[in-house]
Write a structure and sequence with these properties.
Length: about 140
Amino acid sequence: MRELGRRSEAASHPYKSVIAGHPGRKASPLDIKTDGLPPLALIGKAGRREEVVAACEGARALGIHPGMAATHARALVSDLDFCPAEPEADAALLDRLALFAVRRWSPIAAVTPADGLWIDLAGLRAICMVARSGSVGG
């Protein structure tokens, strides 16, 4: 007699069938574009606990979401690729991107709190029209 609540056979991992891409397999709700890479999640400290700060589309499809405990995410998806979150590096990159935008496209660009970038592109159409016509200041 089989024990209640126990499985005698191993359960297959749903993500492995997505990566395998066997032509004969049926479509799955987990069919997402992964480019053959395992799903990725960024982990950061929140007090004494590690939690998911960001997750790629593949990880989100598997149930990983920001705010989830890192240990829970590891238990849920064993193939999950973890990287430490680097908010200082992200902020520095956004600053460089804003400076590039000011030099290239817009007189006004600003980094918004957390992880955003605001670029004023109001005059860009006129600049593009001049560039396409080849006449400058004519």
